[in-house]
Design goal:
By secondary structure, the protein is an alpha/beta fold. The chain is built from 17 helices and 20 strands.
Length: about 500
Amino acid sequence: MNLKNTKSERVIEDFLNKDSDFWTKQGQENTLHFFHKAAEEVPAYKDFLKKNSIDHKKIKSWKDFQTIPFINKNDYLKKYPREMLYYNGMIDGLNIFTSTSGTTGEPFYFSRSPQVSWQSSIFHEFFVKYSLENNGKVEPTLVLIAFGMGVWIGGLITFQAFEQLALRNNYPISILAPGVNKKELFYALRNLAPNFKNIVIVGYPPFVKDLLDEARYEKIEIDKLNIKFVCAAETFTEGFRDYLIKNSGNGNLYRNFLHVYGSADIGSMAAEMPTGVLIKRLCLENKELFKDIFGDLNKFPTLAQFDPTFVNFEEVNGEIVLSGNNNMPLIRYAIGDRGGVYTFDEIEKKLLNHRINIWEEAKKVGIEKFISKLPFVYVYERIDMSTTLYGINIYPQLIRDSLLHEDLQKYVTGKFTLSTNFDDQQNQFLDLHIELKKGAIIQDHLKNMICNSIVDFLYKYSSEYKELKDHIGEKAYPRITLWNNGESDYFKPGIKQKWIKK
């Protein structure tokens, strides 16, 4: 498929009409094609294959392809001179550079091609179709981009996506990109947003939650704005989705969200859309279904769908491996995420095994027109995104959920940093730093209430923690430090929250 000559409307029609076998075949053929091209034309990859005794001409099938060694940031991208990572060993053409956030190591500059930016716009256009379009018409919409605007990918690629899709479809979409400037965002919500029928707030999930919470503190009438959400950068729970819907005053939780699985490495790789949300909500109601799809996870993953002609995914021993063409092509690239991959048919079969018909369920919640048979990639954590206590894993998602308790919502922003430390006697403990909302006062009573809520939640939802607490008692309790809003380096506004400190 020549994507450069394929209109966005046709691609979205394919999202809705093509079956699982089509996507599998297209993905494998496309990936094999640019693998051979990179093997011939990218000096670094050519050298990598030679050092691993791989003759690319002998790689003829998908089974052959799956024998090729992985590449990653440290052992491939940082190992070769930058120009060797590009086709023909030259940094030419249009390159849009962005940087990793540095949360998992030294920052690295990635470049993306106009094609990768266009691919991102397709996911966002599909969001416009299922969330904003009504009887074939999109009413005036304001997109507020609250991602960091700078060297990070989120803000710029999202700006480009909405700009491109608005221009090619003549949609009445307006864009304001204050970035992480809350003062400007509140001013826009108060003075500009009421002029539009729809508002799309785009940002990191914790920051979006902050905006909603503090907008009420700023006496902005959120309930009168028809708010939709585009999020990225980290997994959030269905409880978090419910919280945003409830506190924005309206909305269809299946159609009012686009959750992008993206990276600086290669742009918008996949997106959690109505089909994925529906499956996750069905899993909420059926523990056996959850286990059948996600195994023994003690957290809800992001369940995104991907176009394998954009970026193709594999799962190898619980790790996500991707292949995508770009100025710097990435082939069997270990991106550092844990998760898995399914075709639509595989998921549908699992649902039927539990006597669940996805088409009937979709009709019940009004999304039957937007069910897509694109394949799925589910992601639940960075490989380094957990800490331990007495040998058991403690995941930030469970702490995040515990802080959504109704009794705590008026006190905490939901941001925290968790680590494992040792006291003077070398006793291990969980060290938890938590940010308070504006107006909340640091006091022992509040600290105890938060601690008890977290412990109760972990005890209920983590069988490992339950067993540990039964054995060591209060030594399993976190030691909590509360911080006034905006007063700690643990909670820098506008960048991805660092939930785990190692």
